[in-house]
């Protein structure tokens, strides 16, 4: 932003502050901490090259089985057990390199989620390349009552994409073709297994972008994104997948292929069946193809980091951003002072934070649009108003793309910093904005009153951060260890609190295994009743991703 | 637009051209032709004051019964017939002024759609004021097997909102309270019977707007908008209701109230059941309450009218508009030369069209955003590029809100002009943009070849207009009279053509009675099969809006 002068705002000069940011840049990337990114990538590699797996399987073998941790879960005896005859059938459908069977090391990456929190006991992984193969596999499994787990990039956070017992994993890794792109309408049709980042790169060359962006973009697959109704960083601007997905190709448990890969923005012909699969977490069918509306890639993007003295001021900043930046506002994120302490302790040790003073809250605002000069003028006027009215204390504006990435890296380094600090209890909640941070404060007080929160105590930190623009709070509790006592202090209290404040117990992560039994805190029994009817109607044998999503 | 100079562009000076536009302004309003508007209003008035009905009922009485025109439709004998005991029950639930029974004149406005094309034979209208009353009414009807038709503003175009036989009409006219508005998140909660324009006016005072806009806004109700997944003029910018509706309160046929009136932008807890009701056209339940995400009202809006020499150039203009106007583009409409002839013949006789030269195609572009100077600069640069590259021939830019309304009035006067020209066969289709206008040309050729299209022939005009931004074509055929021969020439040919080009036979009007039997042209048998399962599951007795929506 040339000639951009604001009294209190420091214009980050990348050259002079390079050293300061080097360590941040070294440890972070735009989308997720390098550590996580590496783990993701390694899974992909493992799938291709079983020999490379040995280094990782050693560590993976330490992860305990889900079935040993969730003692209330029992294998459904209605499901058949895998036989040699079954394997022979799958071998008739798929070439041998697309079937993994027998070798524990090769099976392991598909049995364990990337958080290494859940571990199943699947004995067979099938990796179809075509919709027809998925159809043949599912029809067979349905007829034989063999339970299955659809698995995309295996980047989920609630244990939804890995087996619990011996469910067959149907991996969509091999479904990775872009089928068509229409530059006139911006509609993209691709296989469900295409990696989000690959799609975004493909579109970038054509001046378009994916309407969603999330930390796991380097590994997560569009079919999995749709199946989990992934939210992420661009929802504020481009809306949810319920609005941007135009059509789906879904294989039902009985092998029926629902072909609804239309590219139409308007289509009022009957119930919008595809919506049922958006957010169904693999419990109704497998998403083999996706048609999605993609927006133009903005020609200019800028990012600003602000320090704020109260959560009320954060909200006021948001109202003004909506009012003054309106059509160019593309992200509005926040985090608290405790998050910064974690970042400083575990990610950028010894480095100075971009803002000189400490604030209880920090705000990241991203603007993007078709004209850099116009964006900068709007942003400049907006920031001046904030300062004049003492709504924020201080701030920095990125001077180029690299600096913008640095500011984003702070926000996106928080989960990683938290992971490094200890065992993390992760909660992903949405609620009306005005009460969002009260939950963090109430939980801190509760844990202090219980005598477990503080220096050298079982819980060393409780942090709040997330997407202000979507009312989506990520609340992380950093503990020395996972213990039943701590769990019992937090749950179901945190869900009850959320229910009382008209919130959702899962804003964007989904239900998976982790939250299935807590669904009642966000949905009435009548709603759950209809969900169960739909599940029964589409998957009468219950073979699709069992033990998860819906309560018994 | 101050200091806005373009070589070929005429800057409309309202003062000097006042006389020219006066007649257009006189005959049009922003949202719909005055004639239609009056009809809508009169229905509302009629509902309040039965005495005022006499003038209209005289004309309405001439409309023939749907049952006499659609001879394949037979009253379902499983449905009970209304008894005095039933009426006594409804009188116990509702005050007497919310029940209409017996008087034919009073029943008539609810039995006839506003196009005066469909006419039912209902003997009872109930007008509940609360969700609880709807629940009691529906439960009773379900137990007694009394068929019902939910009716909102009665502005539908496919006969979905009026009875066919003696179905009881459940009108939502009395459900008209705004329940809450959160200026922080922009979420509005209101009764399903709130009139769209009233909601928009309410929000305008707070600096917000409804994310949808359509011709019937003065009469249509938000519950009906949701039930029909109304598209309209703002979809290009703000997306469909599948994205902007946050939650619904729906009464199921058995009286169950599905309470899902959340105001959360992110909520991944289970299947997104509310989506099923968006576009269900009253066949699954009654929408008693709506929670919707509302965007900021733009501070500056401008409109431009362009003349284009080919449909290819129209498409090129659209690509450039997406590329250069991107985040401020809020409408991109088109119409053909034949549409203008109709406008000139029937709406603004003797008046000069704003552009001096005739073009085969016309384009309306609306831009809106938070900063007038920025909008104007983007628009100016965009228009200069169009002229320099000879992509458009000529154009005018509105100089103020009144002129903007005049340009909009031309676009929105087309359906009315067509109605005045004769009996109109209306088609509402969506398809890939590149083949959109080919359908109009192919149909003209087909009708010419059949010897029915031309001066003094049965068909006097075939026009194409619509929403380029959404790939949504409105194709109107203006005939001397409705005849089975003409119908047979057009249908199902037009649906087959649309199917062949991967289009939808109903972009935004819905299926209703008109298109139920043609659903197969847009949806596979597997999709229709699932729709039927869902219908059966939620409305096992089939009492909700029978004879429509799904084929037998």
Automatic annotation (TrEMBL), chains A, B:
- Entry's localization field: Mitochondrion
Q: Which GO terms describe its molecular function?
A: (R)-2-hydroxyglutarate dehydrogenase activity; D-lactate dehydrogenase (cytochrome) activity; FAD binding; metal ion binding
Top-level taxon? Eukaryota
Q: What is its main location?
A: mitochondrion
Q: Which GO terms describe its cellular component?
A: mitochondrion
Q: Which family does it belong to?
A: Belongs to the FAD-binding oxidoreductase/transferase type 4 family.
The UniProt function text for this chain reads:
Catalyzes the oxidation of D-2-hydroxyglutarate (D-2-HG) to alpha-ketoglutarate. Also catalyzes the oxidation of other D-2-hydroxyacids, such as D-malate (D-MAL) and D-lactate (D-LAC). Exhibits high activities towards D-2-HG and D-MAL but a very weak activity towards D-LAC.
Q: What is this protein called?
A: D-2-hydroxyglutarate dehydrogenase, mitochondrial
Native organism is Diversispora epigaea
């Amino acid at each position: 932003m040339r000639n951009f002068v604001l009294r209190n705002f420091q214009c980050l000069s990348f050259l002079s502050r390079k050293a300061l940011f080097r360590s941040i840049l070294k440890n972070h990337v735009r989308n997720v901490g390098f550590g996580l990114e590496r783990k993701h990538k390694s899974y992909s590699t493992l799938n291709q090259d079983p020999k490379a797996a040995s280094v990782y399987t050693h560590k993976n073998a330490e992860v305990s089985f889900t079935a040993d941790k969730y003692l209330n879960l029992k294998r459904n005896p209605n499901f058949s057990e895998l036989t040699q005859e079954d394997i022979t059938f799958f071998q008739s459908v798929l070439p041998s390199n697309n079937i993994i069977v027998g070798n524990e090391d090769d099976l392991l990456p598909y049995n364990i989620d990337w958080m290494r929190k859940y571990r199943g006991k699947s004995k067979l992984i099938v990796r179809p390349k075509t919709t027809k193969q998925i159809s043949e596999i599912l029809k067979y499994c349905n007829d034989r009552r063999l339970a299955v787990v659809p698995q995309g990039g295996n980047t989920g956070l609630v244990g939804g994409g890995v087996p619990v017992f011996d469910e067959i994993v149907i991996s969509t890794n091999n479904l990775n073709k872009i089928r068509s792109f229409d530059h006139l309408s911006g509609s993209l049709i691709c296989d469900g297994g295409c990696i989000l980042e690959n799609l975004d790169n493909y579109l970038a060359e054509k001046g378009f972008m994916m309407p969603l962006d999330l930390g796991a973009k380097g590994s997560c697959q569009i079919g999995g994104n749709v199946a989990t109704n992934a939210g992420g960083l661009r929802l504020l601007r481009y809306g949810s997948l319920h609005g941007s997905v135009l059509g789906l190709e879904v294989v039902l448990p009985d092998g029926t292929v629902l072909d609804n890969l239309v590219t139409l923005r308007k289509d009022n012909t009957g119930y919008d069946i595809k919506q049922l699969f958006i957010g169904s977490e693999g419990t109704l069918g497998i998403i083999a193809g996706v048609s999605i509306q993609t927006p133009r890639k903005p020609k200019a993007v800028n990012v600003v980091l602000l320090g704020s003295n109260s959560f009320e001021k954060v909200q006021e900043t948001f109202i003004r951003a909506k009012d003054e930046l309106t059509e160019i506002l593309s992200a509005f994120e926040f985090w608290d002072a405790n998050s910064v302490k974690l970042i400083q302790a575990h990610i950028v040790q010894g480095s100075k934070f971009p803002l000189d003073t400490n604030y209880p809250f920090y705000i990241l605002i991203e603007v993007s649009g078709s004209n850099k000069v116009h964006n900068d003028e709007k942003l400049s006027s907006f920031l001046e108003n904030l300062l004049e009215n003492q709504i924020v204390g201080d701030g920095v504006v990125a001077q180029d793309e690299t600096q913008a990435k640095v500011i984003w890296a702070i926000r996106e380094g928080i989960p990683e910093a938290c992971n490094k600090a200890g065992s993390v209890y992760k909660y992903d909640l949405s609620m009306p904005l005005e009460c969002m941070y009260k939950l963090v404060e109430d939980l801190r007080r509760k844990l202090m009153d219980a005598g477990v929160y503080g220096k050298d105590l079982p819980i060393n930190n409780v942090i709040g951060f997330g997407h202000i623009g979507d009312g989506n709070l990520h609340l992380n509790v950093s503990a020395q260890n996972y213990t039943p006592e701590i769990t019992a202090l937090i749950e179901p209290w945190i869900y009850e609190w959320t229910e009382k404040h008209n919130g959702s117990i899962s804003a964007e992560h989904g239900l998976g295994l982790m939250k299935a039994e807590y669904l009642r805190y966000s949905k009435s029994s009548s709603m759950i009743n209809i969900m169960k009817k739909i599940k029964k109607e589409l998957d009468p044998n219950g073979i699709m991703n069992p033990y998860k999503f819906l309560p018994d």
